[in-house]
Automatic annotation (TrEMBL):
A UniProt-annotated Pfam family: MlaC
InterPro entries tied to this protein: MlaC/ttg2D, Tgt2/MlaC_sf
Record keyword ATP-binding present: no
Protein name: Organic solvent tolerance ABC transporter substrate-binding protein
Keyword entries, A-Z: Signal
Signal peptide: 1-21
Amino acid sequence: MKWLILPILLLTFAASVPAYAQPTPTETVKKTVDEVVRIVSDKELKKPQNEKKRRDSLKKAIGAIFDYTQMSERSMARHWRDLSPAQKKDFVGLFETLLENSYAGKIESYNQEKILYQKEIIDGQYAEVRSKVVTPKRDQYSLDYRLINEGGQWKVYDVVIEGVSLVSNYRTQFNRIITDQGYNELVKKLRTKSQEIKGA
């Protein structure tokens, strides 16, 4: 259940930020979450005939905060350096599609979860935003966002829920498949999985 609502949390910022001021990591996360909540709460977008428009809007919102290249490289770990530039580009695209297809549907299960932002830690170009999620049934768990500043923008490269890292989870799976069956088999499995999710 926790991983089902993770996407909506990845992606509420009421205060305006001056144009000359770079948003803080927390403001960046909150702004994106607010946009996703707006999309899934829009009565017009909830209509069946607007499904494609809703999904496209969600993917755009997700993409605004995810750094897919960083996530891909960190998930591949030592195997990343073995890929050619063309393979890296293809893998990032495939990984992006997988995450989008995987999370777009799950985001729509949003059910008024509340997010309490607790702490922000900045260390050079890296930052971590720590938060707590409270469900309608008052269940609580931790959710931390790890970000990197690239070109003046904070982007999420990992999410840790109850101590479990999204990137580490993928890294373990990817390493096992590559070690046992090879990189091409990983690509095949990811492509198949992405299509299965998209058609679900």
